[in-house]
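User: Fold this; tokens only.

Assistant: Input:
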Amino acid sequence: MRRMLAAAACAAAALIVPSAADAAIPQVFTKTATPINCTVQANGQRHCGSGTAQITSWDGVPLDVAVAFPAGGDGPFPVIGIFHGWGGTKLSLTGTDVQRALGRGYAVFTMTDRGWGNSCGRVMSLADARCRDNKGYIRLMHNAYEVRDAQYALGQLADDGVIEPQRIGATGGSYGGGISLALGALRNRIQLPNGSLMPWTSPLGEPMAIAATIPEFTWSDLATALNPNGSSLDYVAQAPYSGGGHRVGIQKQSWNNSLYLGGLALGYYAPIGTDPSADIVGWKALTDTGGPYDANPAAAGMVDELTKNHSGYYIDDSIPPAPALLANGWNDDLFPVDESLRYYNKVRAKHPSAPISMFHLDFGHSPRAASGSTADRAALAAVENAWLDYYVKGVGEAPRGGVDILTSKCPVTGAGTRYHADTWAQLAPGELRVEGATAQTVVAPGTAPSNAFTSGDVCTTTSSADNASAATYKTAPATKAYTLAGSPTVIAKLDVKGANDMVAARLYDVDGATQRLIARGVVRPLGVGAGPTEQVFQLHPQAWNVLPGHVLKLELLAQDSQYLRTPIGQQSVGVSDLQLRLPLVDAPGTDLGGLTVGAPAAKYVPAGYTLAREYATQTDGTVGGSVPATLSLTLGAPATFGAFTPGVEREYTASTIATVTSSAGDAALTTSEPGHLTNGAFSLPQPLRVELGKAAWTGPTANEAVAVTFKQSIGRTDALRTGAYSKTLTFTLSTTNP
């Protein structure tokens, strides 16, 4: 995560002198068969498991873990779980991230995820039978495995009494952000391998819960992140992978290749086809084909597995998630900003009062994303510190929340311009629109772009010459600067001939003879074979200052290799009636000199989607009407007595249901002589009567006289609620026989 630690804090920590109290935690994981020893550092901190230190997880897989405690006291401490990225191992206890948390009074827990390093990584899995026998391979951040590993270990620390079981924070970047997001979505629950959820308790039964999370440059929907299909829209409440009828998308070729090869070299993959919940080798081979996937059950199974068990967005949201501060990078082609937006909109729709905030900047996965300038990372760190202090430690003022952004910039080492809004929708009050009514064609296979943009950063330039095989649209130049902030949106009629077709999109900032790629995206179009069909998709969000004289140019292409794998059988796609919508921080009506900022147009909401909370029009008011006074009685099936026994004195009972309907609200139901039902000022005109109908009598003497008395059992103060009220009426029958 490479976050900042103030030099003053480091110096102060170094001056702390160890005391007897500092050594009061000699071991951790003391309830296990392999406790881990702790050593006191020169600055008074206690470090446990600095080298290889394994515990056994809940299913027998060995996990390499480490724990550190701040100087002074023996706990219990609030704790931060800090998790590593893809191909990594547990964090060094002397590293910047761990020291930052220790310096603020938190304990730190870190572990090597299963399938990596000394938690059954490639080398260890070849030699240690525990890895093979217990299937300790990489499960791609499965809720019931990697995520549960962390929960299990934290529970053991709670049983040791060294951490507070419900003051737990979680953070990490990339793969570590994935576990952080999932922990927060589960909050106080664990997922079992069969998919069911259970309360999260420690091994000794202590209730556990995540108090807050700060995931960085990570995913919320792994299927979208690895094989996008265009289903994500930043202004809808729910944007699942298959939303609106979208199908399996297009492989991010360069990223899938590099991630897969990294795992092959360092990690432990399940043999192909042996475990449908962790078939990384099989999924890679499947998407390497380039499709088509529509009739392939393996493709449907892959999407189902990745969304159900490996993506925080799909975790059951019947309870609010832990307070979450989400941070993604504008130019991160692996996990772009829309990975945060999808989760943010879902939480805001289902749990509008749940604390959730976003802070986006130019950082994340190299090479396209910068590592984050010193100034930008310091700004993020300050917000993260305040978030954890308030929600985990319970100190400081409540964070202001909302959305903060820092713009991309050139050079990337500079400080971005900061903007704040209460919601994502309010971040961009203005809009610039480009109309393209004239029909164009995205020619297949077409000409590859002059620069693949799989290297360099947002400042990298290429020739601004138009690609003749692309459909191209441009803004007019402006004489004043303006700022793009959000997701460029494309609405167009697409004439799609092939089921496996795609349309790749690029947005450039053109400066004369050169241009910079500032946003990209892809869609698997709908309406195959239906002729020109109107649809919508978005490019990944960006925050970018457009300088005077510059032009924004949209290219729609049939290929964007090596970033995207070109689909098998790609055909040309017709484009007509296109509208490009560019969200701006500039206010509507602003004269840019040659361009005027407009108000955002009404959102295009395709079938199957609903507007996000911030975009829906809401008006406060009252609704009323008159309802006639009603007090009515409806009886159920007639009461039926059993067979009478002549000559035997006994009670015979029978019952029926009386339904009373009242529009008078909650009131007391009473009866008055001779049996009128009364509710407040309303009274049922007819007295309540019970009659005995004719019935065949079988006894020594036919048609024998029978003496009958009745009792009605409606009490005088029985409660009545608005709507249907049911009361059992019980009658007593007595007979006299010579």
